Amino acid sequence: MLLDACLPKTTPQPVFADDADFRLLNDFQRDFPLVTRPFARIAGELGITESDVLSRLAALRDGGTVSRVGPVFSPRRVGASTLAALKAPPDHLDEIAAVVSAHPEINHNYAREHDWNLWFVVAAPDAVALARVLREIRRETGCPVIALPLRVEYHIDLGFDLAGKGRTASNVSYGPVEPEVLSASEVAVMGALQAGLPLIGRPFAGIGKRAGVSEAVVLDTVRDWLARGIVKRFGVVVRHHELGYRANAMCVWDVPDALVDAVGERLAAADGVNLCYRRARADGWPYSLYCMIHGHDQAAVRAQLARIVAQCGLADYPSEVLFSTRRFKQCGARYVAERPS
User: Fold this and answer.
1) Residues 303 and 250 in one domain
2) Which of 201, 233, 277, 314 is most buried as measured by Cβ atoms within 10 A of its Cβ?
3) Do 116 and 247 lie in a common domain?
4) How far apart are CA 118 and CA 109, in angstroms?
């Protein structure tokens, strides 16, 4: 389960070999062509062949730079999910992390510099299943666990602009939001699609075969999910660590409830903020406002954070900065049982 026993301190060489690799990673993180032969459409834009696109994406996926090509589902719009944290004895962190990662409902699992030293995201079909997973983790590990469900999305993008042209606009979403009720065919498509598209000429036909529906139904479903906001974006999903963003910090503040939304919207608009949201507080964890900052090293992240704190007037609020030290698991959320290939 351990992916990165210790995050390297040096900045890697660029992972893209040429302009086509760069554009595959940068240009198609969103606005992916929803057509019967999407990789042929991409090939036409890049001036290469469809087979070349497929082989490049396969190599980038196998090398870890690309997690998958597929949907990023919006938090709270389907199923149930939460960020959670656990206090593990440092001498047993690896084995406890393996227990947590073994649950298929866990899609991210990171060690961070804090007494609450293991942070993970749980996604499940519903709130009952979510609570069950958290109970099982408490029982199996014997460790204190806190759940920190999302309350407000100030800015959640999850893409990485490699060209430095700027980020997408913040789109604040205040809760509570009721999960969408999906039809049987939508659930089947989600089960087949949540791990990503197969890297074949007609990937949506392949998804349809797994789900027991037609290629046209799959394409119509994805388009509808994007229009309804169930899917935040559809395209190439990259891993920041392999792209050279070796340092990532979860920054948290205890902002009074009467002020947190105004402060959160300012924070979300700041350059360098990849994610910004409000979460529920928990016993032993008083923080409500979160943001994520990624950089090539810790010094770059700390410098960016100092600018953000000054710009947003955050200096007077109690805060913590939790750098990640190990990545145990990173994949897409699984909201329904996996469909076999």
Assistant:
1) yes
2) 277
3) yes
4) 7
- Between the alpha carbon of residue 182 and those of residues 113, 212, 339, the distances in Å are 39, 16, 17
Domain assignment of residue 159, given as a range: 80-163+241-330
* Torsion sign, CA atoms 329, 331, 337, 341: negative
Number of domains forming the structure of the chain:
2
pLDDT 10s digits, 116-145: 999 999 999 899 999 999 999 999 999 999
| Selection from 70, 104, 84 nearest residue 232 by Cα | 70
Find tokens 């090398």 and name the residue: 63
Same domain, 264 and 311: yes
3-state secondary structure of 163: coil
**Packing angle between helix 93-101 and helix 127-141, nearest 10 degrees?**
150
- For 47-101, how does the pLDDT look when each residue is reduced to its tens digit (9 = 90+)? 999 999 999 999 999 988 898 999 998 877 888 999 999 999 999 999 999 999 9
CA distance 291 to 317: 14
Give residue 316's Cα distance to chain centre.
30
Are residues 142 and 266 part of one domain?
Answer: yes
What values do phi and psi take at 264, rounded to 5? -60, -40
> To which residue do tokens 């948290």 refer?
252
